[in-house]
Amino acid sequence: MIGGIIGFVGGLAVTLKSAWREPVTAEYPESEKRLNLEDRYMGFPALTWDGDVGEPYCTGCMVCVRECPTQCMSAEMKDNPLYPLKSRRRKIIDSFEINLARCILCGICVDVCSFDAIEMSHEHELSKYERNANRADLPSLISMGRDYQKKIGWNPRNPEKNNGLPQVEEGGLDSGAGEAVEVEE
Ligand code: SF4
Ligand code: SF4
Known about the structure:
The protein has about 180 residues and is α+β, with helices and mostly antiparallel strands. The chain is built from five helices and ten strands. The strands form four sheets. It has a three-stranded antiparallel sheet with strand order 4-5-7.
């Protein structure tokens, strides 16, 4: 009998304690009631922007496209019009598309990129009514990436290698590929 009362009082105490606790859930979709995302949160992949040069980090090398397990990416490169005077990147991305409806957010594209050019952003709300409406093109991917960079104060993991600013060396500009380029007077 006494054990039963103790158990009842203990249960009541837990109930009362929980009743006054702050909610641990959020009401969707009201933006002011949402939980904050941690910096390490992995949303959809997005392309990063090199603000020092004014171009994407992506050179269109296609490594991520080849490694993507769901084959939801495509990319094309072009000669970089800013190379060599304004950028060390000989090639630059021309078009890029990710079918985000097929992306499984595995992060492999980020892991295999050697240029700090793609990150798992915080974007995760892309529901659409149309079947193919989640194909993100280059401007969309860059916009997502710039929002992400600004939000978390992103910095490249390998800035010496991947910063696009031309590095002035004796006798000319370093092309970034181990080749000096003479500057015309
Ligand atoms: S995101 Fe990285 S791996 Fe993918 S094409 Fe651009 S530079 Fe290459
Ligand atoms: S996160 Fe995975 S599935 Fe999505 S684009 Fe990158 S490699 Fe492909």
